[in-house]
């Protein structure tokens, strides 16, 4: 079946957030890891989010990857493609939001593109073209000190103009509040002045619902998960979605096998979740220095887990308190120690899967990315949420057969998160 909505996300965590938002708003959604192989067999879904890592790469590379993802999505039937960006408009004067948006628009035959990073649920609103992060204008928010793309201007019409070839205009809140016809009229007026990119105000979800309806009348839009919400609700309202209430049940069909948890997050929430898990299941605390010294600690962890896992879920954790983390970082460097531990936890996860684990929880954003890469999982179908922002994922096209995964970053989830995740995947 043809997909209704395609999306290209400029980073992986943004892709997950969008895929989860689309699912919660009624679309059966698959998230791919990178541009999928042409042969990837999709389940019956409404939306596909292609996850790329193009937020801060040189603009020509971002354009090449995004247009290749666009071709894949169009071949699968997507009539609208959302370029998913960060809700804080992370970009520099050389891109990549402008160049990628214009390339996607050109590929679809041109026309005017709606652009809005608004996502009211997370405090991102746009008024008269100015982006607010909570109560602060973008240029006064912590984003002014972002290491890769410091944002010194809250006026998105100006920001987008600096990184685009075409002219940028504004659809203001007054037009949006007046409803879809007023927005159409405003877009027509902008078109006649030669404008090709339109920053759209949005403060409430209802504004994004209006924008979603209008965006669906065009081939391309650019926005954060808020615009995804608007597009999903507009599609559901249009009657083109057949799933009804059963959006996430497909994802939850049992997969059998064993279950395990691998943790590399050192966040306060994860450390507490590990302490709580220790009361009900075996937990192995890895020795980070030994992990960095060679393969013995990994082999020992796999042997430890192998002895126990048939009897029930086990937890293997590199996670440590801040003092221990800082000591390791001062000895080996922050990047090197983080990367080495991610490699170790990903090897442990892959070995556990080799030994029959089909239900896997990974704690830590980077830790999850490394594990998913090593497991070479091509895509996920998004299931129901265990905690806000953390859904169960069902693998799609996985060489080892269907698995259920939970990828939890940092501070997400309550203190009994691990038991709750395992219970849900049963
Ligand atoms: P979070 O989502 O909580 O930020 P991440 O997985 O993104 O978690 O980041 C945690 C980082 O800390 C990873 O690079 C991981 O390899 C590293 N790490 C895990 N355990 C330790 C440790 N004991 N000492 C130092 N670094 C660690």
UniProtKB/TrEMBL annotation:
Residues 5-229 form the Four-carbon acid sugar kinase N-terminal domain. It catalyses: 3-dehydro-D-erythronate + ATP = 3-dehydro-4-O-phospho-D-erythronate + ADP + H(+); 3-dehydro-L-erythronate + ATP = 3-dehydro-4-O-phospho-L-erythronate + ADP + H(+). Residues 260-418 form the Four-carbon acid sugar kinase nucleotide binding domain. InterPro entries: 4-carb_acid_sugar_kinase_N (IPR010737), 4-carb_acid_sugar_kinase_N_sf (IPR037051), NBD_C (IPR031475), NBD_C_sf (IPR042213), OtnK (IPR050007). The keyword Transport does not apply. Catalyzes the ATP-dependent phosphorylation of 3-oxo-tetronate to 3-oxo-tetronate 4-phosphate. This is 3-oxo-tetronate kinase. The lineage of its organism: Bacteria, Pseudomonadati, Pseudomonadota, Alphaproteobacteria, Hyphomicrobiales.
């Amino acid at each position: 079946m043809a997909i209704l909505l395609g999306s290209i996300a400029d980073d992986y965590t943004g892709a997950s957030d969008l895929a989860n938002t689309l699912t919660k708003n009624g679309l059966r959604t698959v998230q791919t890891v990178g541009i999928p192989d042409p042969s990837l067999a999709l389940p019956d879904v409404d939306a596909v989010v292609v996850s790329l890592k193009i937020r801060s790469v040189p603009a020509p590379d971002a354009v090449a990857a995004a247009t290749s993802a666009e071709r894949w999505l169009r071949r699968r039937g997507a009539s609208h493609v959302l370029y998913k960006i960060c809700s804080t408009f992370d970009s520099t004067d050389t891109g990549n939001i402008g160049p990628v948006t214009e390339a996607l628009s050109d590929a679809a035959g041109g026309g005017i593109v709606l652009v809005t990073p608004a996502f009211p649920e997370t405090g991102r609103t746009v008024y008269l073209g100015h982006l607010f992060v909570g109560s602060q204008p973008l240029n006064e928010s912590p984003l002014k000190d972002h290491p890769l793309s410091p944002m010194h201007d809250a006026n998105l019409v100006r920001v987008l103009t600096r990184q685009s070839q075409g002219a940028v205009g504004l659809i203001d809140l007054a037009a949006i509040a007046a409803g879809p016809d007023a927005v159409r009229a405003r877009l027509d007026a902008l078109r006649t002045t030669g404008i090709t990119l339109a920053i759209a105000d949005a403060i409430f979800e209802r504004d994004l619902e209006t924008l979603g309806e209008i965006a669906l009348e065009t081939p391309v839009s650019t926005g954060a998960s808020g615009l995804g919400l608007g597009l999903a609700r507009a599609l559901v309202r249009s009657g083109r979605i057949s799933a009804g209430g059963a959006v996430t049940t497909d994802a939850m069909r049992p997969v059998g096998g064993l279950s395990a948890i691998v943790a590399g997050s050192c966040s306060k929430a994860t450390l507490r979740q590990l302490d709580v898990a220790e009361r009900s299941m075996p937990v192995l605390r890895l020795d980070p220095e030994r992990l960095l010294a060679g393969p013995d600690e990994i082999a020992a962890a796999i042997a430890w887990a192998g002895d126990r896992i048939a009897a029930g879920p086990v937890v293997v954790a590199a996670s440590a308190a801040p003092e221990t983390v800082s000591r390791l970082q001062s000895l080996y460097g922050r990047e090197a120690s983080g990367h080495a531990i991610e490699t170790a936890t990903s090897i442990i996860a892959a070995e556990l899967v080799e030994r029959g684990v089909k239900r896997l929880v990974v704690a830590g954003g980077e830790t999850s990315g490394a594990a998913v890469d090593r497991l070479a999982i091509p895509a996920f179908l998004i299931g129901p949420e265990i905690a806000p922002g953390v859904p169960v994922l069902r693998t799609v096209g996985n060489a080892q057969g269907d698995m259920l995964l939970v990828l939890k970053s940092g501070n997400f989830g309550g203190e009994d998160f691990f038991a709750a995740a395992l219970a849900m995947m049963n």
